[in-house]
Amino acid sequence: MTVERSTPKLLAARAGVAERAVQSRHLRRVWGVPGTLLGVAAWPMDWRGHLHLRFNYWWQAHLLDCVVDAQLRSPNEARRQVVRRLVRGVRVRNLVGWTNDFYDDVAWLGLALLRAAKEVGVSRPSAVDAIAARLREGWTDHGGGGIWWKRDDDFKNVPANGPTAIFFARLAEAGGSRSDLVRSRSIVDWMEKALVDPESGLAWDGLHVHPTGEVREVETTIYSYCQGVLLGANLEQARTSTSPVWLDRVERLIRAVDKELAVHGVLRGHGGGDGGLFGGILLRYLAQAAVALPELDPGRAGAARLAADIVFLSAEAVWNNRTVAVSGPLFGPEWTTPAVVPSRERTPESDLSVQLGGWMALEAAALLERHDLRPS
């Protein structure tokens, strides 16, 4: 597949169009409460959507992350207020506080809140403290270490441990405890030891353990989501360490993703629902790696170029296979297949997650554009 060279700022413009479409179709107040916003889970929305009866906590965290990306791309006060209202919306709709029983959900909101504080100036330290406390309690020695996917469960997985490791590394960088960086590295090392396929170099999903701590079963499904968070977690360690091991793992993952999870450089999809976010998550961290690798180790320029190419090719496929709906483009779950406009029958395109995945892809490409990177 070839990519037409984009003129400067074209990729940023595409991301802006995606932003406006998602905001117009999905963002609504929570129960009419002033100063709140949330993303409605599906469009076209019915009365259940207007009432936010379906609350996908971690989708809202990624919505918040996307708005932070947009603010970095094109800062303005109106978007800062959207960040504030989304944060308040999550708290109002979650009812019981800032956390829930799923450690992966909590880690994603923690990451989004750290970015909102650092990049936008919208700070909620009590929320970050509550999230950090909840995640710290999730570590046990069952299965050799790691945190649980959910409280009172028997499953430990990369989707929970990856964002948690990134969260603790960034929390330490933001002035938190040095022990959080140690905790982050322990989680990354546990994932590498327990859940990386020695043949492909990709991360498996997770493992089930007996109450005694022994591993009962390993879930060997390969998701793009898992590769993204493991890549991001290793990249965070590389920023604070001179050891080459972290960048070795980052480079291994980039090359394995290109070989195993992309077709002509475009990431394969994982359908609607939660799967709609998977590709976008991976592209987010591939873009970060493409920017950071030349600075951390100029000798890894080839891996950085490969990561950038996957981002550009995937984002181009997202854009080329969009369809047009109310308020702008609508993206599909499989980026090499034309999207369809939902009708009475729900399609994956209905899901906020799928639209966020496409928006994330375009923001990842726009990030590279801001760093003067171009398609090969």
UniProtKB/TrEMBL annotation:
Lineage: Bacteria, Bacillati, Actinomycetota, Actinomycetes, Pseudonocardiales
Name this polypeptide is given: Putative alpha-1,6-mannanase (GH76 family)
Domain of life, source organism: Bacteria
Listed Gene3D superfamilies: 1.50.10.20
Native species: Umezawaea tangerina
BP terms from Gene Ontology: carbohydrate metabolic process
